[in-house]
Fold:
Amino acid sequence: MTTQSIRLERETAPAQPRRSKALSRRALGLLLPGVFVLAMEAGVRSGLIPANLLPAPSEILNTLYYLAQHGLAAHIAVSVLRVAAGFLAGGTLAILAGCAVGLSSHAEAVLDPSFQALRAIPSLAWVPLLLLWLGIDEAPKLVLIAIGAFFPVYMGVVSGIRGVDRKLIEVAQLYRLSNPALARRVLLPAALPAILTGLRNGLSLAWMFMVAAELIAASRGLGYLLSDGRETSRADIVLAAIVLLAILGKVSDKLMLRLENRLLAWRDSYANSLQGKQ
Structure:
C-alpha cells in the first residue's frame, strides 16, 4: 500500500467508524489501570492491604482534591516549566552535538568517547556536584534535567544519521550535492524517525530527572510533594504526586507522538498502514 493510497483511504473512510474505533482503543487502554484501581480499592477496604502503606484510590482522589484547593496548580506549573526549559536546552545541544558526530568522523573521535562515559553516570551522582557548582537555586535543577534529556536525543541523532541508506548518499552524489545540501536534503530527513524517537525518550527522561532535581532543596513542584509526603509519612500525598507525574508524562508523550506522526506522514511504513485502517 503506497503513501498516496493510505492518504486516500483516510480521506474517504467514514468519520463515524473511525471515531468509534478510536474510542474503543482508548477504552482498551483504560482497561488495565481500571482493573488495578478496583482491585486496590477492594484490597484496602477488605483489610488485605494496610491503608497506611497503600491508601485506597478514593482516598488518593480526596487528597488530590485537597491539594487542588491548596496550591497544587502552582506545583504542577513549576514542574512543567522546569521540564520544558531543561528539555529544550538539553535537546537542542544534543541535536547539535549529534549532527556534528554523525556527520564527521573527526568529531566522533573527539566527542563520542567522553559522551559515552558521561552517559553511564547515574542521575543522583550529578546532584552533589551541581550543588557545589551552582548552589541550590533553579540553575542546578535545570542543568540536571538538561543532562537527562541530552543523551537519549544525542544517541537518536547519531544512530539516525549513521543509519541512512548508503544508496541515498550515492544518488545525492550523482546529482553533485554539496555537503551542506546533502545533510539538509538527504541525511537529516532520512534520520528524522530516529531523531524523533530520541526526542520522545529524552522527554521521558526529563520527567524522571525532574523528580531528582526537585529533591535539591525545592520548595515547589511535584518532586517536592514526593519529598514532603515521605517526610510526613503521608503515603496518599506520595501516590497522588506519582499519579500526577504519570498523567503529565503520558500527556507530553502523546503530544510528541502527534508531532512525530505529522512530521512523518510521508513515510510508507507499517505504522502508517495501521493508522490508515483506524
In short: The domain at 3-277 is CATH 1.10.3720.10 (MetI-like fold).
